[in-house]
Amino acid sequence: MFSSHGTIAALIENGPLAELISMGGPVMVVLIAIAFVGAATFFYLMLFGAFYTPRFTKPLQRLVAQWQQSPADTPVEATRSNAGLLGRTNPLMHLLVNTMSACQSDAHIAAVRETAVRDAQNSLEPFEAPLKIIEVIAALAPLLGLLGTVMGMMEAFSAMAATEGRANASQLSGGIYEALATTAAGLVVAIPFAALAAWIEFRLRRIHKTINSALVSVFNVIPAADLTTASQPVQPEPKKADVPLENQAYSPTHFDSNPRLAHAAG
């Protein structure tokens, strides 16, 4: 037990990490720490995204196609109950099913639309914090490298000042080496994380576009409540004067008096 701990401690003290720290000083320690944090954040994002990324799967495509044909007869809840593990963890599945169920229950369409927009934003929030961490690391690493460069040059000129300008190359090489090492380490950390941040942001935009497209496909269809209202028998209106149809002036109040139809037209 103690021998294994001793071996690990020896590897840390005499391994590559110890060499990097001796090369770059305290700035190198910070760069190594944020590199580990960024790597852990990226792996967490990939693991979380494998299960909770909104996906427009084939069952959802069939559900939307059936909804577009007949909203009132679409088995919305049956689709959710028959979904597998990946289907139950798919936020887009719950978003579409909840939206369709609300439309079928004669809810106010404007409130349903606002709820759908809020839920769509909530489904992307878990990905925003890891993306922000990776972006901060990509922006912070070059600045830390620059800080190490300045500190290394300060050490070199301090050695030159201590010898009153008679410092040899070996006395100056330590500070210059530290400056170059931290600069290189900062770039090595920043470049891959900048590429990862751009890729993750591109993926989030694709996911956002997919969610918007799915919601538009749902809201472009007249809800079941409107279909039910339209299918009810129309009550006869009071008899008006027999005026030829071509002589009747169009009045927008006949359309605007029904707020539901006015909302559907808008």
Give a written overview of the molecule.
With 266 residues, the chain is mostly helical. The protein has helices at residues 2-14, 16-24, 26-52, 58-69, 76-81, 85-88, 91-104, 109-162, 169-219, 224-231, 253-256, 259-265. The longest helix has 54 residues, at 109-162.
SSE layout and pairings?
Elements: H1 2-14, H2 16-24, H3 26-52, H4 58-69, H5 76-81, H6 85-88, H7 91-104, H8 109-162, H9 169-219, H10 224-231, H11 253-256, H12 259-265
Helix pairs in contact: 1-2, 2-3, 3-8, 3-9, 7-8, 7-9, 8-9
Helix and strand sequence: HHHHHHHHHHHH
Count helical runs. 12
Task: Estimate percent helicity.
Answer: over 70%
**Which stretches are poorly predicted, pLDDT < 50 over at least 5 residues?**
227-266
How far apart are the termini? 73 Å
Can you summarize this structure?
With 266 residues, the chain is an all-alpha fold. It is built from twelve helices and no strands. Helices cover 79% and strands 0% of the residues.
Descriptors for this entry?
266 residues; mainly alpha; 79% helix; rod-shaped
